[in-house]
Amino acid sequence: MNIASRFNVLPDDRQTVQFTLDGEIVTAKQGISLAAALLAQSGTASRQTVNGAGRTAFCMMGVCFDCMVNVDGVPNTQACMVTVRDGMRVTRQIGLRPLEGSNDV
Amino acid sequence: MGQPEITIIGGGVVGLSVALGLLQAGHRVRVLDGADSDARASQGNFGLVWGQGKGWDFAPYANWTVDALAAWPAFSKTLKELSGLDVALDQSGGFEFFTDQREMDEFSAMLNTQQAHVGERFSHEVLDGDDLRSQMSGIGPNVVGATFSRMDGHVNPLRFLRALRVAVTKLGGQITSDAHVAKIAAHQQGGFDLTLTNDDKLGADKVLLCAGLGAMTLASDLGFRTKIRPQRGELLITEKLGERLPFISSTVRQVDEGGVQIGGTKADAGMDDSETLDVMAGLARHAVDVFPALASVRVIRAWGALRVMSPDGYPVYAQSTQHPGAYLITCHSGVTLASMHASRLVDWIDETSSAPNLEPFDEHRFAL
Ligand SMILES: Cc1cc2nc3c(=O)[nH]c(=O)nc-3n(C[C@H](O)[C@H](O)[C@H](O)COP(=O)(O)OP(=O)(O)OC[C@H]3O[C@@H](n4cnc5c(N)ncnc54)[C@H](O)[C@@H]3O)c2cc1C
Ligand code: FES
Question: DSSP letters of A22-87?
Fold first, then answer.
């Protein structure tokens, strides 16, 4: 499933970085937020609520919590509050985090 | 519907529980509730339905609390029938965790005294740290032990408040928001004139003052001598977790929706309900001492709220001697006692033949 993104990335000559989303390689402009990178890549849900509904970044300013993903093993990370980094391992946040969630930090 | 015969001032858990009971007993009831800017313990509390420690040095309160615990299952069922809302009552037993042996010994001694007041109807156990850890996985090494009581538990506090509002409305009770009573004047021949801050005037046959900290000023207008004071408690709430914690405790509890609520501090800070960094850090440390796996869990919200305390901390149920149609009803632990406020307290107001003896809760105990 790869819905075309409705977000256009401004043309600039910034360098790019690469991270993985559920194992898939994604390329993004350096310096943008992870939420912006996810939106630019596709329109698909980046998290699933407890009831199974799909969600992705909405407010882009840290209030709605709809952009939560797992970043390098840390669950419920707000993607709009972190900058993309080369080699970041991002997985979609499916449902509630487990108690022992931060296994690799 | 005619003019409501009973006007309740204050629409927190205390006023609404009494309203619910009065409506069930067939009275016409109106609830006047203040503004969002009021200190509202009912919107910031911990949701415990809790007996441990309650009334260890005051037998009537120990008994009243045990009655309340016993009545909660039926009360939550009634609430569900009336409101359609499940307050998530879980009364599977509660722990008090200790990291200091001396504090634990003191508390166990208090529980023994409490036990003596209420006998068979209450039970408690004392577990040392290793016993506890062998029964329940995940308890931290700094925990020296815990006390346990099998009737303790909790509800979802905000859903409880909502369920009360819906149930009261369902039974025909009128709840008016933004109706802040500024003044109460008693008639010579009985009855009261209420003036709201917006200058609206209302008449009432009977007035029940259940305004929490808002009762501080109105109580003396009605001839009551009780001095209510605020006591600040601070709380943290974490992100929601997929698993259930294996315990309910008075300081660390998991809300049915998954978040962990951490609290239990006490401070005299006047009407200042802000939260403070050192207290929040202490709460987080305590939670991690109790259950180290919480260390990686994020806190997403923190707040302070003001408890409603009488001079000795026990409930006040008093009828004004100067103006017999006026009542002062106030307590700490208004969640726990709600099951009584919606039932036995109403018998007392109605002076039915089965009315409980609430004399020990009268305010004459504060006479100089
Ligand atoms: C941090 C904290 C944790 C707690 N934990 C627990 C717990 O775990 N278990 C438990 O049983 N209890 C707990 N409590 C206590 C419990 O929350 C209170 O006993 C209870 O909420 C008191 O309810 P109330 O209706 O008396 O007061 P409030 O909730 O303060 O309600 C009073 C209402 O009266 C209104 N009002 C005020 N003045 C006027 C006026 N002049 N005219 C009209 N309306 C007015 C206000 O707007 C308000 O809505 C806790 C309290 C705190 C602060
Ligand atoms: S997009 Fe709303 S919090 Fe991140």
Answer: TTEEEEEETTSBHHHHHHHH-SS-SEE-TTS-EE---SSSSSS-TTEEEETTEEEEEGGGSB--TT
